[in-house]
Amino acid sequence: MATVEELGVKQRVQWCPGCGNMGVLAALKGALAELGLNRHETVIVSGIGCSGKMPHYLGTYGFESLHGRSLPVASAIKLANTGLTVIAEGGDGDGYGIGVQHFVHIMRRNYDLTYIVHDNQVYGLTTGQAAPTALLGMKTKTTPWGVVETPFNPISTAINGGATYVARGFAGDIPHLKELIKGAITHKGFALVDVLQPCVTFNYLNTYQWFQERVYKLEAAGHDPKDRAAAMEKAMEDSKSDYKKVPIGLFYKEERPTYEETLPQIKDTPLVKHDISNVDISTAYEDLE
Ligand code: SF4
Hints:
This protein is an alpha/beta fold. It contains eleven helices and ten strands. The protein has a single domain, classed as Thiamin diphosphate (ThDP)-binding fold, Pyr/PP domains (Rossmann fold), CATH 3.40.50.970. An eight-stranded mixed sheet has the order 2-1-3-4-8-7-10-9, with helices on both faces. Strands 5-6 form a two-stranded antiparallel ribbon. Strand 7, helix 7 and strand 8 form a beta-alpha-beta unit. Bound molecules: iron/sulfur cluster (SF4).
């Protein structure tokens, strides 16, 4: 078991002062410490982007993968050793743009993974181009006259796509976000935590104040996360209200067998614990010759 202090590293955090990524890091550290997880049994896998630095700042195992590829790497780690707690993370450009094909297929398989998305509506590391969740009309370097595409809706996509825990937090409310992440990690199945994460350097529209004026908590509003139809309704509420109301909290949760549990080869014994001392692969390719 590791404390919050033990989960830190000596490396200086390189994010811009005030970046919402700081809130995500604090919430994740708090969640790992409160769940009493061992550092050597926890793996953080990132893609590329500002959020991709997260494994550098945590004293767990970590893997910084390619752009949009945190989910395939995380699922491979989980398949190899189902005993590990595996947390994938990345930005909205990384996961909802470049890696969206992995997002869709991993959800329907229901791997037992947590996926935290730093959703700041821009590609921050490459200096602020519009990302898939950028709002209509938002001006960026790549959209000088404003975004004309309908924003990607990760919450409705996840509910519809087979994710079994679908939540959204706000980097400006660390205690609330920490509880959502704890729920995601302890959930058996694919858990999405989309995090509204202000990019203070390149997103001048979706600021801390912008979110604080709009977010409200689903649990305080009496939402039942087992009600799929109600969850879909809430998932659409931000766009339907022209972003006057932005719900955060747990939208949807269901119990379904995980991918790993349905594979006979690994459902009882993790792959890394298989005895391969007597396996003969010398004839494995004979049928193909
Ligand atoms: Fe954070 Fe934006 Fe700076 Fe990246 S560019 S570290 S997302 S504030």
